[in-house]
């Protein structure tokens, strides 16, 4: 039989009589933090030194091409591809997610098959495939299935690198986006849906007013992950000759051989776009975080903005 | 006696082969408060959820006024299940209060209450807000109209949930263990609101473990066991002069 450890009886209170107050206690010593900070400073200094003194970066060339017309056209194309593919992904992904969660067996099977295929093959393969769709289906036509044809067009004429890129990126993104939506939708408590139904809300209203807004908190972060992946994923389009950012700088350095500075130009633009997206994400997350925490947000910026929002709320409350 | 408004006949419900309700017959009259007691697993919550079609019955029928809940009679004796949208319209006549409150966390208290009157009863914004504030005053929370549910205590949230259920002026109110998720000190504020409602003539079907509330506020007490109604009668009949050994055993264990 196990015995309980006996109470320690040799503990004694100190005999000192002056009171101790922990209100002004010092922080604990953290030597490891100091060592790590010093290492960080040294490495950062080395990095800055390298960036400034290594002539191979050719910062003057970077500056020369950063705003050049070819590069800017590439940036615009990258943004255009991102926005169009993202729109297809967000809309089609939403439809796929709803189908996957529906009671209808056929819709569920169709959505699952789509996701299985487009998530299961590499994006690059899909892009090249769409670009070469003419090899599989030389002529696209509209008409009655197995019956007469009304209009037809040669695939190679219709499918430009741009269209192949939009379709390829969009359809691939939709498969991922569908799973992001689904994860968010199933994370909403069943009781919320029951309460909405019990109030007599019709299915569409339950979905758009109760389930989706609450799911958004779980949908937004991975969606921005995937949008940012999409921004960079557009660089794959250079393989099929779409004139996006990477293709543009490649066009320049293939003639000038200034490979490193032009890749830096491209990187600066990619970083700029993704940084703006980070900011957008912050505000969208804050919007959908309403009512989600008793104590409000954790970062100082968020706390400041929350205080402002709370003041606005209060003013509104006093008017009504 | 007032006229019956809810008639449950031969109601049966199976969950994957297990029979949870084995033929329930129950009538509720206008203005009546019926407390449903029984140990967990006796089928009392399932019975309540069948009334507003959150569960699909396996057999029997539920009439609310002249509506067959969840179904429509066709020519002859054929009966066809309604779509979710059609059921949504029927549910507007039934209010429900849940064990876990289920307030919408992304809406303020006022939005939670005013949404139904605004979007379903098509009241103007001012009317919806006025009705919501009246209800909030009635449950004693008018000062918390602009708070989010998470900023309220459990008892306060449940009182908001009651106001929300009342906002559509339902014919029948269903309470599914409304105090079971509350801290003991918050139970009273919720049962007080419910007792006031019962006294004001609301028609209520209350699944509860609060025997004190059932005794004080219910017109009739129904005791369920193993998917059937074992016994029913006035609180005095069921609490003090029960004919069933099973009921007396339940009372003894619950009242400790």
UniProtKB/TrEMBL annotation, chain A:
Q: Where, subcellularly, is it found?
A: Cell membrane
Q: Does the keyword Nucleotide-binding apply?
A: no
**Name this polypeptide is given:** Amino acid ABC transporter permease
Keyword Ubl conjugation appears in the UniProt entry = no
Keyword annotations from UniProtKB, A to Z? Amino-acid transport, Cell membrane, Membrane, Transmembrane, Transmembrane helix, Transport
Q: Name a Pfam family for this protein.
A: BPD_transp_1
What SUPFAM superfamilies does UniProt report for this protein, alphabetically? MetI-like (SSF161098)
State the organism named in the record: Cryobacterium flavum
**Segments traversing the membrane:** 34-52, 72-98, 127-146, 158-176, 218-240, 260-284
Membrane topology is: Multi-pass membrane protein
What is the protein's major site of localization?
A: membrane
Its Gene Ontology cellular component terms are:
ATP-binding cassette (ABC) transporter complex
Family of this protein: Belongs to the binding-protein-dependent transport system permease family.
| Any one GO BP annotation for this protein | amino acid transport
The record's InterPro entries line, in alphabetical order, gives: AA_ABC_transptr_permease_3TM, ArtM/GltK/GlnP/TcyL/YhdX-like, MetI-like, MetI-like_sf
Domain of life per record: Bacteria
Spell out the molecular function terms from Gene Ontology: transmembrane transporter activity
Q: Which residues form a coiled coil?
A: none
Q: Which NCBIfam families match?
A: HEQRo_perm_3TM (TIGR01726)
Q: Give all residue intervals belonging to the ABC transmembrane type-1 domain.
A: 75-281
Automatic annotation (TrEMBL), chain B:
Membrane-related topology note: Peripheral membrane protein
Tell me the compartments it is located in. Cell membrane
Q: Which PROSITE patterns match?
A: ABC_TRANSPORTER_1, ABC_TRANSPORTER_2
One Gene Ontology molecular-function label: ABC-type amino acid transporter activity
Q: What is its main location?
A: membrane
The record ties this protein, via Gene3D superfamilies, to: P-loop containing nucleotide triphosphate hydrolases
User: Which Pfam families does the record cross-reference, listed alphabetically?
Assistant: ABC_tran
One GO cellular component term:
plasma membrane
Residue ranges constituting the ABC transporter domain according to the UniProt record: 6-251
Which ranges form a coiled coil? none
- What keywords were assigned to this record? ATP-binding, Cell membrane, Membrane, Nucleotide-binding, Transport
Q: What name has this protein been given in UniProt? A: Amino acid ABC transporter ATP-binding protein
**Taxonomic source organism:** Cryobacterium flavum
Give the source lineage, highest ranks first.
Bacteria, Bacillati, Actinomycetota, Actinomycetes, Micrococcales
């Amino acid at each position: 039989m196990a015995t309980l450890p006996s109470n320690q009886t040799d503990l004694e209170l100190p005999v000192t009589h002056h009171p101790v107050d922990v209100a002004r206690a010092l922080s604990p010593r953290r030597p490891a933090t100091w060592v790590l900070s010093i290492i960080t400073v040294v490495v950062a200094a080395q990095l800055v030194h390298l960036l400034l003194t290594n002539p191979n970066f050719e910062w003057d060339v970077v500056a020369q091409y950063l705003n050049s017309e070819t590069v800017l056209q590439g940036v615009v194309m990258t943004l255009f591809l991102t926005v169009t593919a993202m729109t297809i992904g967000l809309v089609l992904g939403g439809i796929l997610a709803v189908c996957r969660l529906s009671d209808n067996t056929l819709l569920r099977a169709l959505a699952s098959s789509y996701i299985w295929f487009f998530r299961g093959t590499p994006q690059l393969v899909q892009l090249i495939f769409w670009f070469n769709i003419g090899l599989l289906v030389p002529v696209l036509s509209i008409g009655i299935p197995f019956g007469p044809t009304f209009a037809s067009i040669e695939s190679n004429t219709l499918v430009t690198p741009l269209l192949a890129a939009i379709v390829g990126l969009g359809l691939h993104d939709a498969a991922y986006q569908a799973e992001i939506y689904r994860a968010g939708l199933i994370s909403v408590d069943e009781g919320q849906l029951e309460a909405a139904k019990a109030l007599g809300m019709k299915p569409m209203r339950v979905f758009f007013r109760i389930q989706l807004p609450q799911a958004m908190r779980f949908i937004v972060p991975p969606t921005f992950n995937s949008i940012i992946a999409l921004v960079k994923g557009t660089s794959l389009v250079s393989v099929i000759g779409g004139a996006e950012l990477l293709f543009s700088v490649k066009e320049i350095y293939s003639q000038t051989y200034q490979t490193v500075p032009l890749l830096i130009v491209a990187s600066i633009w990619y970083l700029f776009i993704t940084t703006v997206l980070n900011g957008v994400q912050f505000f969208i997350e804050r919007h959908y975080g309403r009512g989600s925490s008793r104590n409000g947000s954790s970062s100082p910026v968020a706390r400041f903005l929350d205080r402002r929002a709370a003041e606005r709320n209060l003013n509104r409350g006093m008017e009504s | 006696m007032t006229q019956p408004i809810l008639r449950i006949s031969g109601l049966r419900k199976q969950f994957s082969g297990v029979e949870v309700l084995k033929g329930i017959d129950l009538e509720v009259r206008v203005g009546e408060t019926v407390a449903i007691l029984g140990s967990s697993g006796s089928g009392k919550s399932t019975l309540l959820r069948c009334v507003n079609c959150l569960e699909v019955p396996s057999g029997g029928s539920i009439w609310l006024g002249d509506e067959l809940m969840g179904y429509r009679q066709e020519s002859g004796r054929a009966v066809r299940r309604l779509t979710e949208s059609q059921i949504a319209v029927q549910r507007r006549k039934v209010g429900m209060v849940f064990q876990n409150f289920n307030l919408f966390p992304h809406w303020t208290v006022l939005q939670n209450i005013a949404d139904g009157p605004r979007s379903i009863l098509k009241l103007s914004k001012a009317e919806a807000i006025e009705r919501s504030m009246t209800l909030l005053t009635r449950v004693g929370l008018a000062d918390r109209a602009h708070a989010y549910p998470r900023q309220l205590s459990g008892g306060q949230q449940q009182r908001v949930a009651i106001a929300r259920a009342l906002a559509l002026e339902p014919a029948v109110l269903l309470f599914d263990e409304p105090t079971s998720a509350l801290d003991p000190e918050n139970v009273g504020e919720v049962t007080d609101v419910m007792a006031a409602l019962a006294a004001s003539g609301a028609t209520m079907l209350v699944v509860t473990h609060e025997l004190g509330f059932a005794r004080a506020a219910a017109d009739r007490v129904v005791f369920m066991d193993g998917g059937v109604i074992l016994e029913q009668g006035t609180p005095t009949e069921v609490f003090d002069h029960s004919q069933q050994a099973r009921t007396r055993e339940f009372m003894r264990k619950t009242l400790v």
